[in-house]
UniProtKB/TrEMBL annotation:
Residues 1-25 form the signal peptide. This is Glycoside hydrolase family 99-like domain-containing protein. It comes from Mucilaginibacter antarcticus. Keywords: Signal. Pfam families: Glyco_tran_WbsX. It comes from the Bacteria.
Length: 395
């Protein structure tokens, strides 16, 4: 074999390796999981005490200018005031989401007054959509108290009275867990990590208080894990909603969760964490790019302080004024700047190759918190296109 021939073979081999690396980089899959708030439905009788017109929280969205004439917030959904509990509507949403790179929905899930609340979007819409297998899903138990914030007829008085408590007893906790395992974990498109169903808990202090204390909560969560195994799964991926220290700009939640310590998290048995909304851990009354700088610092703190995996979170924005007429407001959260946040999350995932490539986003449809991916009259499909550019087009 001549030296020249050997040289040619070497160049060909290097070319193949290089092409393989490029192909790998271009075809890497990311799990882009958008929280879905299930209040945009028709004819759910349990929602009528808050929104008597029967269209869920669309009533709040569409009445802003009537309640606050000339107010700066005047967003309109391009898809209209859709009923997300309609399986044909949800099928359209699944198509649009997956086409733009969103392949997981995290359903906000509620339990009040001894029964499930706001479940129709999931049960009647998503799980009956003809294309549901295109999209994975998992649950975040939103176990916060309910105060007057949903009801715009009352929240103007700024009263903090509790309508329903988020805490539950051990008996109720077991009822919730058994129902969740049978009704949702066993769905073929339920999102799992290493075969373990992912279950996210929003407010840990509420959980502990309801169950009677720290030791009782540890025992209850271990029971939940054991029940999940008995149902045939290798275990439970118990996901913590991470918060900042006494920082909550949302004005909604019944309690404020302090950032936990590593020993606390380990004792409770959480196996991963993410955030739900920027408003829970950074000052959101700021420019979006400044917020991203502070978010990155928080991710670094999580890496330094906790042993469990952290999955990066990006929020579209924050402005709760459609409900109350006043709010901290994220500034300059354009689709272009949102894309910068997505690239930051992508870089974090790429730097943690031992974790699954999961990124959480707030949110698919939080219209009254002005943190949504759905197209509107201001940016059109801009936020969805940003996800597609970063995660599907590689730009």
């Amino acid at each position: 074999m001549t030296i020249q021939f050997k040289h040619t073979i070497l160049l060909m081999a290097l070319s193949v390796l290089s092409f393989g690396n490029i192909a790998t980089a271009q075809t890497k899959k990311y799990d882009i999981a958008a929280f879905l708030y299930p209040a945009y439905v028709n004819d759910d009788p349990r929602l009528r005490p808050f929104w008597p017109k029967g269209i869920g929280e669309w009533e709040t969205v569409t009445s802003v200018q009537d309640r606050f004439p000339g107010f700066y917030w005047d967003r309109k959904p391009i898809w209209g005031t859709i009923n997300e509990a309609d399986p044909s509507v949800m099928a359209m949403e699944i198509n649009e989401a997956t086409k733009h790179g969103v392949n997981v929905f995290i359903f906000d899930w509620y339990w009040y007054d001894g029964r499930a609340f706001m479940e129709t979007t999931l049960n009647n819409g998503f799980l009956k959509a003809e294309n549901k297998d295109k999209m994975k899903f998992y649950l975040m138990w939103a176990n916060h108290d309910v105060v007057n914030t949903w009801d715009v007829r009352l929240n103007k008085y700024n009263e903090d009275n509790v309508i329903w408590q988020g805490r539950v007893s051990r008996d109720e906790f077991e009822k919730i867990c058994k129902r969740t395992i049978e009704k949702y974990f066993k769905q073929p498109n339920y999102y799992k990590i290493n075969g373990k169903p992912v279950y996210m808990i929003y407010d840990v202090p509420q959980l502990i208080n309801g169950l009677g204390g720290m030791e009782q909560a540890v025992a209850a969560l271990q029971w939940f894990k054991d029940e999940t195994k008995r149902a045939g799964f290798p275990g439970l991926e118990l996901q913590l909603t991470m918060w900042g220290i006494n920082l909550n700009y949302s004005g909604f939640d019944g309690s404020k969760t302090e950032r936990p310590q590593n020993a606390f998290v380990k004792k409770l048995g959480f196996t991963s964490s993410t955030h739900y909304q920027f408003a829970h851990f950074v000052n959101v009354n700021d420019d979006y790019l400044n917020i991203l700088d502070n978010v990155k610092k928080e991710w670094d703190r999580n890496d330094a302080q906790f042993e469990i995996p952290y999955y990066p979170h990006i929020s579209v924005g924050w402005d709760n004024s459609p409900r109350t007429g006043r709010s901290a407001v994220v500034k300059n959260n354009t689709p272009e700047n949102f894309a910068k946040g997505l690239r930051m999350a992508k870089a974090y995932v790429d730097a943690h190759p031992k974790q699954v490539p999961l990124i959480t986003i707030n949110s698919w449809n939080e219209w009254t918190e002005t943190s949504y991916l759905q197209p509107d009259n201001k940016y059109g499909y801009g936020y969805l296109q940003a996800i597609k550019q970063v995660f599907l087009d590689g730009k």
